[in-house]
């Protein structure tokens, strides 16, 4: 079996040893199920220290569940949810947002993956008109699916605009750790401090085995969420195993060390491949993702050695993702192979 690390996804990486150790540490004795245990209480306390004491925190298993159930709590089924055309909730969740919320997804073309008030204006109409789905939530992704990062002022601008029209704001934070490390700002600054109402706080892409957290900054949205989570089949009986992972990630800035290392490896990869004639980067490299145009005829040969995905087959744009466990040897080995294939 080939265990060589590739550049397909940070989901493909292993689990950080500190996270495994934390899960093992809660594996003795019996504790009350469904989150009524001291480990879950402690982990929620750590999250509140990062995001604000008024935050309401709920653990779930997956990123799709975090997005979908957070949106479910924020909408009525006659609402629309506005997002970028590259958003995970639009492209990669098998219609789950529409299925569970009953809402209509409306997309905006955003070449760099980032929404702005000007881009959102096209969908800001039909208010109080019963024949039109009512704009309800603006969903942004931090960092975006294209590896770009919203600055705090950019997030605030989107939130202020949405709130001025009576809409709520949701953040898909699957790679929020990478974004925070890139910007050098706190989690609270880019979420509650900027006006986000509900956040999907990702851990799986940053060294956890599984588990995400839904964090409500608008407390009115969380009032009945325990029922939504149960009906959504995301209430973990042995929740302490999810909680222990977040406890580890938020201890000793493990989240930052993992994310900043992944970001650093992506910057190294981008720097090296940009020196190869015929390879063109298509996006700013701000987190752990590198997007580039590569001659299509060499892609299959590269994938045999270092697996990755083609982002856009029409243009032969590929995506290379680095992880907390990517090494300089991984990067330089791939660069050498790419250079040889380019002739």
Description:
The chain is α/β, with parallel strands linked by helices and 343 residues long. It folds into two domains: 17-249, Aspartate Aminotransferase, domain 2, CATH 3.40.640; 255-341, Aspartate Aminotransferase, domain 1, CATH 3.90.1150.10. 38% of the residues lie in helices and 16% in strands. The chain has 14 helices and eleven strands. The chain has helices spanning 17-25, 38-51, 63-73, 88-91, 96-101, 117-120, 152-164, 176-183, 187-190, 225-231, 240-249, 254-273, 299-305, 328-341, and strands at 56-60, 79-84, 104-108, 134-141, 168-173, 198-202, 212-216, 280-281, 289-293, 309-312, 317-321. The strands form two sheets. Strands 1-7-6-5-4-2-3 form a seven-stranded mixed sheet, sandwiched between helices. A hairpin with a 4-residue loop joins strand 10 (309-312) and strand 11 (317-321). The protein is globular.
What structural category characterises the helix and strand content?
alpha/beta
Task: Please provide the count of β strands.
Answer: 11
Order of helices and strands, N to C?
A: HHEHEHHEHEHEHHEEHHHEEHEEH
CATH A-level architecture of the largest domain: 3-Layer(aba) Sandwich
* Radius of gyration using CA atoms only: 20 Å
Major β-sheet strand ordering: 1-7-6-5-4-2-3
User: What is the molecular shape?
Assistant: globular
Unreliable residue stretches: none
Specify the CATH class of the largest domain: Alpha Beta
In CATH terms, the superfamily of the largest domain is Type I PLP-dependent aspartate aminotransferase-like (Major domain)
Determine the mean pLDDT: 97
Tally of structural domains: 2
Distance between the termini: 29 Å
Tally of contiguous helical segments: 14
Estimated helix fraction: 25-40%
Task: Give the CATH topology of the largest domain.
Answer: Aspartate Aminotransferase, domain 2
Largest sheet: 7 strands, mixed
Strand share of the residues?
A: 15-25%
């Amino acid at each position: 079996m080939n265990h060589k690390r590739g550049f397909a996804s940070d989901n493909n990486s292993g689990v950080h040893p500190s996270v495994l150790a934390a899960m093992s540490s809660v594996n003795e004795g019996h504790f009350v199920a469904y989150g009524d245990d001291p480990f879950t209480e402690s982990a929620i306390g750590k999250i509140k220290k990062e995001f604000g004491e008024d935050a309401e925190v709920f653990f779930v298993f997956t990123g799709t569940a975090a997005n979908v159930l957070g949106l479910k709590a924020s909408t009525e089924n006659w609402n629309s949810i506005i997002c970028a055309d590259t958003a995970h909730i639009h492209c990669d969740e098998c219609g789950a947002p529409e299925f569970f919320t009953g809402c209509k997804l409306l997309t905006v073309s955003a070449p760099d993956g980032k929404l702005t008030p000007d881009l959102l204006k096209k969908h800001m109409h039909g208010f109080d008109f019963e024949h039109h789905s009512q704009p309800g939530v603006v969903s942004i992704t931090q960092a975006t699916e294209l590896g770009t990062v919203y600055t705090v002022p950019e997030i605030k601008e989107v939130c202020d605009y949405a709130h001025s029209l009576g809409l709520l704001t949701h953040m898909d934070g699957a790679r929020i750790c990478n974004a925070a490390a890139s910007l050098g700002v706190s989690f609270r600054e880019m979420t509650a401090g900027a006006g986000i109402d509900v956040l999907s706080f990702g851990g799986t892409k940053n060294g956890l085995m599984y588990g995400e957290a839904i964090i409500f900054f608008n407390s009115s949205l969380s009032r009945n969420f325990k029922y939504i989570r149960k009906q959504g089949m995301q209430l973990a009986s042995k929740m302490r195993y999810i909680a222990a992972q977040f406890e580890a990630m938020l201890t000793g800035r493990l989240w930052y060390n993992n994310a900043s290392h992944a970001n650093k490896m992506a910057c190294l990869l981008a720097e090296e491949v940009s020196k190869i004639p015929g390879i063109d980067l298509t996006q700013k490299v701000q987190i752990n993702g590198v997007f580039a145009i590569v001659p299509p005829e060499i892609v299959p040969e590269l994938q045999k050695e270092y697996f990755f995905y083609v982002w856009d087959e029409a243009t032969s744009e590929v995506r290379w993702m680095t992880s907390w466990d990517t090494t300089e040897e991984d990067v330089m080995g791939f660069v050498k192979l790419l250079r040889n294939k380019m002739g």
